[in-house]
Design brief:
- Two copies of one chain form a homodimer.
- Chain A starts with a strand and ends with a strand.
- With 337 residues, chain A is an alpha/beta fold.
- In chain A, strand 8, helix 5 and strand 9 form a beta-alpha-beta unit.
- In chain A, strands 3, 4, 5, 6, 7, 14 and 15 form a seven-stranded mixed sheet that branches. A six-stranded parallel sheet of chain A has the order 10-9-8-11-12-13, with helices on both faces. Chain A has a two-stranded antiparallel ribbon with strand order 1-2.
- Chain A has eleven helices and 15 strands.
- Chains A and B meet through helix 3, strand 13 and helix 9 of A and helix 3, strand 13 and helix 9 of B.
- Chains A, B: This is Zinc-type alcohol dehydrogenase-like protein.
- Chains A, B: It holds the Pfam family ADH_zinc_N_2.
- Chains A, B: It is found in: Cytoplasm.
């Protein structure tokens, strides 16, 4: 089968930043299923790993990354109970195993969901990683729920990115929160409104932007951009006993003590934690993905895909990473096989 | 009435580190009640404020601190609904108002509870601040509950202090957790076992101490001593998706990013947050104190008082602070009026 990977961390414009190569189709054992991939999407984690994981070393067999795929089940391990051959499934996968930049992939059934049926394959391919991340941070980490939190206010830092796009929708349409999203360009502002944001603020001078639209403080803040950069604003804007979540890549220590006076809570979300540590509750991701499928099929959530590249080629993988690395992409980018 | 305070932050051995003086009895208005105090207890927050709040300045009227009292209601403001004259009440109070080192005090009824009936006045005086802190961190911050958390494991850093003594009991007797407490001297170890700890560990080399007794990781960690000092151990010992709480006085920034891989949560607890910010739910402290009274009266919680000084004098206040500042006290110290 065909796979695309890299032997060394290279600038995306270099010839070998992505290489097409042949690989054996793996065998599904235990709780693994073998999936024939039909489309994938790219996420910031992809280029971060491409640029950093093989910086100081080189490997003979190219490293296969990519953590978003849709496809059909080709074979099942002997302990598989959730899926059968022919099911169309979607998933983000496991950071500790090969990714989805290949024609066939094995993945643990507990982190796989039934794909949505009423949206296109490309649209569905864009959803798993961002939906799992946005769902986990709001429901599993901050433990928000409609009963007790309806009409409370959430500030979403980074509304137009992949996770922000699903985050705004879940916060607004499923939890009934009042949603303030940061969006600083016209195209991102329009996108956030389309996702359901109630208020938009510029990320620069965030504190006065939020106060200007009538909020002294907010109940919840989730950061999808840069925790260190927004720390001071977060400390000022969070309500006493408020909840703060982040998925961003920390660039240094933070003065956590500044939150003590308010008895505030801080939650990390990493979508890979459950699979990486094989937590007892890792099957939660199966249930979350099924729920996301249902919300998409019922039209409650709208797809966040914005760009499709046709054909699983090294050139398309380069184009995909190049766009994502520019930081200018809005919504999600999908590569159709 | 008599009050005891200080005009300047002084070493406890200096003559004027505490001064007795006369003060007008205040009037209860609104939701405030006026309490005739019968006994108080001291907490680390007392000497921290005595030592630091008037370091660079001096005031004419002595500053009155102290946040633990039991007494009887003498008068009620016109909006008071929870208490009537003659009720015996106990409370920790509000950091932004005068404390309980005086014969009469006004306090908002929403942070006051009915005193326990089956234990002594001195024993009851020792409970409010530490019980509120321990209860809030376990139930309101980490959101632990018996149904879902029974038999999970909590590591309590600082088991023999005031908050630790109640924390061990609530974790063990009310939540049904398996409790590991740090205690490094014979007297503190005995005390922690008396409070209900299942396992004791030395605070030095905490990681290997915990592993030695058979735990690779723990579900919850609460720090009542020093977050910076134990940070590395906390990062290593917490389970993926685990919960960490702290009440300690932070000495510097922390590398919060180290918890991201595990998607762990961090909670601050400051007992004064609710009153300080007049949060909508500040009446929660009334309910918590009533529940603590019931648990004490039913013999489920045992009192944590260990030392009583007889007489509300500057000499006794000095003795109380001196003992607390030594860091060697076990359980709680009470001054009886």
């Amino acid at each position: 089968m065909k796979a695309i990977g890299f032997k060394k961390s290279l600038h995306i414009d270099e010839a070998d930043s992505f290489i097409e190569f042949e690989k054996e189709i793996p065998t599904a054992e235990g709780r693994d299923i073998l999936v024939k991939i039909e489309a994938i999407s790219v996420n910031p984690v992809d280029y971060k790993i491409r640029k950093n994981s093989l910086k100081d070393t080189q490997q003979d067999i190219p490293k296969v990354i990519g953590w978003d795929a849709i496809g059909t089940v080709e074979a099942t391990g002997d302990e598989v109970t959730l899926f059968k051959k022919g099911d169309r499934v979607y998933y983000a996968g496991d950071l500790t195993r090969d990714g989805s930049n290949q024609e066939f992939q094995i993945v643990d059934e507990r982190i796989v969901g039934m794909a949505p049926k009423n949206i296109s394959i490309e649209q569905a391919a864009a959803m798993p990683l961002t939906s799992l991340t946005a769902y986990e941070i709001l429901f599993d980490r901050l433990q928000l729920n409609k009963e007790k939190d309806k009409d409370k206010t959430i500030l979403i830092i980074g509304g137009a990115g992949g996770v922000g796009s699903v985050g705004i929708q879940l916060a607004k349409k499923v939890l009934g929160l009042s949603v303030i999203a940061t969006a600083s360009r016209e195209v991102t502002a329009e996108w956030c409104l389309k996702m359901g944001a109630d208020h938009l603020v510029n990320h620069q001078d965030l504190v006065s932007e939020v106060k200007k639209i009538g909020f002294e403080q907010v109940d919840f803040i989730v950061d999808f951009v840069n925790l260190n950069e927004y720390w001071d604003a977060i400390v000022e804007l969070i309500k006493p006993q408020g909840k703060i979540g982040s998925i961003s890549d920390p660039t240094g220590p933070v003065p956590l003590n500044q939150l003590k006076k308010k008895s505030a809570a801080f939650y990390w979300e990493l979508m890979f934690t459950r699979a990486m540590f094989q937590t007892e509750d890792m099957i939660a991701q199966h249930h979350i993905l099924n729920q996301i499928s249902q919300l998409l099929d019922e039209g409650i959530l709208q797809p966040t895909m914005n760009t499709t590249l046709d054909g699983f080629t090294a050139e398309n993988m380069k184009a995909a990473h190049r766009l994502l690395e520019s930081g200018k992409s809005v919504g999600k980018l999908v590569v159709k096989f």
